[in-house]
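## Example pair
The file below holds two records. Each record gives the amino-acid sequence first, followed by its structure token line.
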Amino acid sequence: MWNMRERRREYDVIVIGSGHAGIEAALAAVRVGASTLLLTQSLDTIGQMSCNPAIGGSAKGQLVREIDALGGVMGQNTDATGIQFRMLNRSKGPSVWAPRAQCDKKAYQFRLKAFLERTKCLDVKQSTVSRILRVGDRVAGVETDFSGQFFGRSLVVTSGTFLRGLLHVGGQSKAGGRMADSASSLSDSLRDMGFAVGRFKTGTPCRINKASVDFAKCETQVGDKPAPRFSYVDIPEASKDDIFTLNRSTFHVEQVPCWITHTTAETHEIIRKNLYSSALYSGAIKGTGPRYCPSIEDKVVKFPDRTSHQIFLEPEGRHTNEFYVNGLSTSLPYQVQVDFVRSIPGLEEAEIMRPGYAVEYDYFPPTQLTATLETKLVSGLYFAGQINGTSGYEEAAAQGLVAGANAALNALQQENITLSASDSYIGVMIRELTTKGTNEPYRMFTSRAENRLSLRQDNADQRLSPLGREYGLVEDERWVVFREKMAHLKALKAFVGKTQWDGKLIEALLKKPEFTWEHLGSEIRAEASAEIWDLVQTDLRYAGYVQRQTEANRRLARNDRQRIPCDLSFESVRGLSQEAKQKLSAVRPEFIGQAAQISGVTAADVSLLSIFLKKKKNARPAEHIVV
């Protein structure tokens, strides 16, 4: 804070960047008890959803629930500003269920800005950081463009795609972290400090005018009722002048639909004919792009046999005509974008409001970090988000929370917090980033976690809230809600373990797939809420699977020295992801333990490979029949 006698602006923690990572970092630092400064290039873009106006999805939804369990704000802000809510993967087991929500883009952004501005012990200032200050091997503060210097005991860098950001639309390129925003030269300061640097690429599709879409030619996709929530606590009551909280505790706002259409053979032909003008294929882009979120050019080139690709038309808010065209990320010239968009059913008359573009940016290989996200080179300096080579709002926010909490704990000279890979997806992500690194933008998948059956979206609070409380991340009101929930859960588990229904123990009935708690009588159902019944039922049904998975993980850990034949064709291993086959074929590891350390090879891949090798070893050669 201000020290008027010395005129030095001093804080415990300084956070650079106000995207999803920066917001969670700043708020986590404050909850831990640190005076915190959040610096942003523009106060008008705090919390902006630069790409998709959505939160959650497969594995990402689990991350948001874990952020919420640790006291973070992303889940609650999504609940408050969402305009469509769905639970994905319901046709599969509960361990992979994942909440996803379309948000009102501006409501999400402005509600977060207001929340930050009203947070005690947090200063929010517009200023561009040009240099990091240090004393010896410890960070000391930052130097900015116009505001001079700010001093802090710890520093968190959450710079997104702004580090030497370069935007591409066809043959045109200009500096920027996203369209209409300037780039940052901060990576020059980090490079001068001795950090290794790499270059990644991401992209975004065009936005079109709702009024120009023929929705009759598209398939409607509606939200779930009742709407699944992200936060374990209710949305706080808002004042009457709060226009950005769209949903109150009753979720009164009507959900809006999304729409589905497809590219056509004509679309693909237009793209093929114009590949030479794509920044990606002309050689203008040097950075590596995301494997699991490819541009439409990549889809057409890499999947030549596909005659169409699914496209989602997603509203950006309740008070705008802008629609996000999910699935059409591109760096082709503007006129080519117009041409191929209008070859898609329903979009024949579409008007592009903003063109799609690609952005290249610097990232710093995360193997330069410890498990706390502190840099190994400079004490008190933490990285979170896309600077670590990750993609996605959710991955960034999760890292921001951990980095912000540890930056505060460091400044206050308290023990750091680390999340275990066995207990959280956040722990899995940080383990993989800091030990394996990443050679392409990293995205979270459930297959990356060896304990994925236990890491469900519905039990994140049970796994993480006690740890968050221990370090000051979970505040009193949230803790009271958690304690009450755990008391109800304990009581219902005891009840089903001793009570019979139709002559059979309820605990035994709930383990049967054809029986659910909703089959029970009304008096018995009244023992607990639907949420508690669902949790108990899922725990009972998964208990055996979890036990077997735990034992399989133990066996796999003992098999690190299991040899992989040098002539093995990884294409012959059924179930391996395509990425794993490519990475394993390129590296040719000698042992299972080495395979597990390869970036892009998941825990599920390693397990499949180990099982395959054991079966191959145990298979007896066929007997020769002599005639």
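Second record, same layout:
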Amino acid sequence: MNRLQKYAATAVLTSAALAMPGGPAFAQAKPALKAEAIAGVDARAKLVQEMVDSIFSFAEPGFQEFRTSEYITAILEKNGFKITKGVAGIPTAWTATWGEGGPMIALGSDIDCLLGLSQVPGSPTIKPLVVGAPGHGEGHNSGMPLIVAAALAAKDVMVKHGIKGRLMIWPGVAEELLATKAFYVRAGLFKDVDASIFTHVSNDFGTAYGELGNNGLVSVEYSFHGKTSHAAGAPWAGRSALDGVEVMDMAWNMRREHLPLTQRSHYVITNGGGQPNIVPGEAAVWYYFRERTFKSIADLYQTGNEISEAAAKATGTTVTRKVLGYAAPNFANKPLAEAAYRNIKAVGMPKWSAADQAFAKAIQEANGLKPQPLKSDIGALSTPETRGVSQGGGSDDIGDIMWAVPTITIRYPSNVPSTIGHNVTAAIAMATPIAHKGAVAGAKAVAMTVLDMMTSPKLLADAKTYFNDVQKKTDTYAPVLTAEDQPAIHLNEKIMAELRPQMEKYYYDPSKYGSYLEQLGIAYPPVTK
């Protein structure tokens, strides 16, 4: 008898006890409810596989998730959810709500992918489906399938047992640009929400609470404005906007030596001018400024602004700036994390097959990655004490929602150890049985935690107390967004207009093929000589 069978058997005994006079109170019936939720997720394993593979094949980057959003919302609408599109002024953003009365629980996951990471799934070697196209090198194609399966399973249990409560499903649009969740909060999307569960792909299965140690961020583009002239005939008559960009970048790189160790900053030149024989009249550079606290983010941003203005003055140009996104530092809720962790432990890691392990090994060997098998055990709950002192790092704009309502992130095991984030290697397994099994496991933990929240007022009360009395004592939510700052919905529009016709040829058709690998004619695991 495996872990879930034992769990279900315990639930049956508990349900029988409920029917006896003087039996346990309703709150103790949760194991029976959770067993039903587990069965509900298992019944939707095929839906999870189809969604994971379909969203992988759409491969839409930030603000261009049109096909992905249409696909997901159609499934939710068919299952009784009310869809509201274009929320917060973002065409690909939406909410899906269901239920009445009781607490409102928000469930979310990201849906965008990354530029230039197109990859044939199931091929251990790097092989783009469409050269130069976007791809799911962060695994965001698996999160929303998990959330949909969890929500539908929890909804079935709530309907059957008359449990009052509401669900709100929402997508992380343009997360790789850190460009929407602060706008969601500003628009009031979470004003009626009691608690929130977010999910993110990983190679392990767990959650965390407290200050998570990552950096917040402000994303800003600086546009320099000069004067064109013949670059050979009369260069003295021109003022190079590109010179402004280059002076800013040089000055920033020199300033790095004198910045705190926790900062992370990086940039790309988004406009370097037209052609060499014309002094560039317009040029632009896009920066990410990352730091650990709200104040230090704002201070780093101000330093960037000062350097941009100095660069403009030095080159006889002018400069304007536009905030393209913001992400708050992450702070997860302790009572919710502890509840979710108990459910993660009850579910356990997926049962990896020999083929799954062979495929993971093939990816690692083909790409010179450290050999590590797919994990079989659940690690410890991540706490501030076990994480130690943070020296900064990446960002995730779920932080903005974490500062709006009690929130946790559940990591689920849909990818392979040693693969590199924001790299093609992280896309290789994301439309394979590894991704499918990890999403199913994650869906069970989410569904069970939703039922905990819906049936235990004390859990939600404790979560709110921690949010107000612990989290808010550490810092104050203070994004640098102004009323004039709007979502940068123009981003990635041109590249998708160019590439989408080529990519559409590779969209997954679940009506004809049992999996995306089958459609592409790929053996699993790959046959090696």
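Notes on the second record: The first strand starts at residue 82 and ends at 85. The radius of gyration is 24 Å.
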